[in-house]
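Key result, reporting period 2: structure in, sequence out.
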């Protein structure tokens, strides 16, 4: 397993990390993802550790906290071997204090996560969404307190816009608070919006990308095909409306090229899609999920080899889409491009 620095920090994380959203399996969304109990989760953690995957990502909102509980059981007795990443801010209930990033909510959420995980510290504590109703200064000072208390070691965010992340980083610098080092983001061959603003921000500010849903919300498994119905067992039957939309023709154009490269390499389509991400700028780790041992072992085949420059170029071309304003001038007009070359096309594919 390759290890990379997470953003501008000294923390080294594996190129692949494991997403524990399949643990617990409660509710319409997470129940469709998977329902691994503690025994099965421990087996999946065993396989991960044998392969060098040492980081495990979860969130309080995953199955209403059950994911954290199951993960805690699965890593019991080997806490020093793993990096635990969890997230908070999304609603855990209907009460006024059950969501957001206020001082009260963050302290409570951290204590609850520590209890569910069965640990006394969290390696990476991330805000799951931006809270526009809480002053950023309040959020950052509270996170600073949690770091100083030794309950949290590193900080990150997830699903922030560019201005939300940049404003937070600027305020952290102004007051001497710990800076965010990670941005957990959606990024895939059928969802490259990350490249237009958040990737340049990550390069400039030292935010390492932790990629969620690298297979485009289950669309890049190789089972979704042109002019064919969704497979009976596809989770898209129950979860399509929760995830990012993808135009069917765009998806099939990408899958056609993935098929071609699969023939050339002997690799599975999911392995190719993940390998492409691992060669993109700012990507520190790609979060893989698995409902069972077979899925996990297939995803592990995404590392230990690399797509050729020609194969990368074919995938880039097939998955490219016109940029939205204000980015399209940089894509189409020579003068703008000379001043700010598009990161996704011209920066070297090195990890943060």
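The corresponding designed sequence is given below.
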């Amino acid at each position: 397993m390759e290890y990379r620095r997470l953003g501008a920090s000294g923390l080294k994380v594996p190129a692949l990390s494991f997403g524990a959203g399949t643990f617990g399996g409660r509710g319409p969304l997470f129940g469709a993802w998977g329902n691994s109990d503690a025994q099965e989760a421990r087996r999946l953690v065993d396989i991960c550790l044998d392969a060098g995957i040492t980081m495990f990502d979860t969130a309080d909102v995953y199955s209403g906290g059950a994911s954290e509980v199951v993960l805690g059981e699965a890593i019991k007795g080997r806490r020093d071997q793993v990096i635990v990443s969890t997230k908070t801010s999304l609603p855990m209930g209907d009460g006024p204090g059950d969501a957001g990033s206020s001082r009260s909510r963050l302290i409570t959420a951290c204590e609850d996560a520590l209890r569910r995980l069965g640990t006394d510290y969290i390696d990476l504590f991330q805000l799951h969404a931006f809270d526009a109703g809480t002053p950023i200064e309040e959020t950052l000072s509270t996170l600073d307190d949690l770091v100083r208390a030794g309950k949290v070691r590193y900080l990150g965010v997830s699903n922030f816009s560019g201005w939300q992340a940049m404003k937070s980083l600027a305020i952290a610098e102004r007051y001497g608070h710990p800076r965010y080092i990670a941005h957990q983001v959606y990024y895939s061959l059928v969802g490259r919006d990350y490249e237009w603003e958040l990737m340049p921000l990550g390069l400039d500010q030292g935010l390492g990308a932790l990629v969620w849903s690298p297979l485009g919300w289950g669309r890049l498994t190789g089972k979704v095909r042109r002019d064919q119905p969704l497979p009976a067992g596809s989770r898209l039957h129950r979860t399509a409306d929760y995830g990012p939309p993808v135009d069917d023709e765009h998806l099939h154009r990408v899958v056609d090229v993935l098929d071609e490269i699969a023939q050339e390499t002997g690799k599975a389509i999911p392995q190719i899609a993940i390998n492409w991400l691992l060669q993109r700028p700012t990507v520190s780790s790609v979060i893989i999920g698995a409902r069972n041992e077979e899925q996990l072992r297939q995803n592990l085949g995404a590392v230990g080899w690399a797509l050729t420059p020609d194969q990368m170029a074919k995938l880039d071309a097939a998955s490219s889409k016109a940029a939205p304003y204000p980015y399209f001038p940089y894509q189409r007009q020579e003068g703008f491009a000379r001043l700010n070359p598009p990161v996704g096309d011209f920066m070297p594919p090195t990890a943060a």
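The CA atoms of residues 14 and 68 lie 20 Å apart. The mean pLDDT is 89. This case is discussed further under Risks and Mitigation.
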